[in-house]
Amino acid sequence: MRSNPNIVVTGTPGVGKTTHCEALAERTGLRHVSVNQVVKDRGCHEEWDEEYLSWIVDEDKLLDALEEEVKAGGCIIDWHACDLFPERWIDLVVVLRVDSSTLYDRLSARKYPEAKLQENLDSEIMEVLLQEARESYAEEIVVELTSNTTDEMESNVDRIEAWVKQWKENTRPEGGKDGDGNGTGEA
Ligand code: ADP
Ligand code: MG
């Protein structure tokens, strides 16, 4: 059993995954696992896609590279997909969402090529990542949160931090034997 939860933070590129994960790692002490970085550092890819200016990911290699770390628990997984991990490894899936105009501005600022920008906008409008999350994980562990503004981000981080605290309370060793030691023996 994990003593720290694993959280997937997912959504279309530009929704704010990395920003949320960094803030959450600082607040909770859990580890920010940037899957993009793992793909690059551990060579979990096939060829470079010239049109989309990104690597074509080798999912088997990627899962091998991450398996040990994720199984140990305490990961905040930052990736624009979520169906890679078996359901039993994951405790919470956060799907970040933004308005089209906000996403357009953020992706333009990144100088995304037109085809890639359009595909990502379509993907956000069609709720592709939300669907994927709902198909891959139990309904009760998937939450959809909006990330249009800094205020929304702060409130999301507060909520997720509170969830982590609650998760830890709920998964403390049986009956809190090593707990408060007040000897009341309450169940
Ligand atoms: P992702 O990791 O999902 O691609 P990032 O975290 O890199 O997205 O965020 C993309 C851009 O949008 C960054 O410039 C970031 O500062 C900004 N951003 C992200 N989330 C918010 C938010 N909730 N409010 C305002 N700006 C945001
Ligand atoms: Mg990112």
TrEMBL record:
GO cellular component: cytoplasm; nucleus
Family per similarity comment: Belongs to the adenylate kinase family. AK6 subfamily.
GO BP, one annotated term: ribosomal small subunit biogenesis
Reactions mediated catalytically: AMP + ATP = 2 ADP; ATP + H2O = ADP + phosphate + H(+)
Region of interest: Disordered: 167-187
Binding site for ATP: G14, G16, K17, T18, T19, R110
Function: Broad-specificity nucleoside monophosphate (NMP) kinase that catalyzes the reversible transfer of the terminal phosphate group between nucleoside triphosphates and monophosphates. Has also ATPase activity. Involved in the late cytoplasmic maturation steps of the 40S ribosomal particles, specifically 18S rRNA maturation. While NMP activity is not required for ribosome maturation, ATPase activity is. Associates transiently with small ribosomal subunit protein uS11. ATP hydrolysis breaks the interaction with uS11.
Protein name as catalogued: Adenylate kinase isoenzyme 6 homolog
Keywords assigned by UniProt, alphabetized: ATP-binding, Cytoplasm, Kinase, Nucleotide-binding, Nucleus, Ribosome biogenesis, rRNA processing, Transferase
GO molecular function, one term: AMP kinase activity
UniProt cross-references to InterPro entries, sorted A to Z: Adenyl_kinase_AK6 (IPR020618), P-loop_NTPase (IPR027417)
Compositionally biased residues, Basic and acidic residues: 167-180
Stretch list, region NMPbind: 34-57
UniProt keyword annotation of Protease present: no
Pfam families in UniProt: AAA_18
Assembly: Interacts with small ribosomal subunit protein uS11. Not a structural component of 43S pre-ribosomes, but transiently interacts with them by binding to uS11.
Region LID: start-end pairs: 109-119
Subcellular location: Cytoplasm; Nucleus
EC assignment: 2.7.4.3
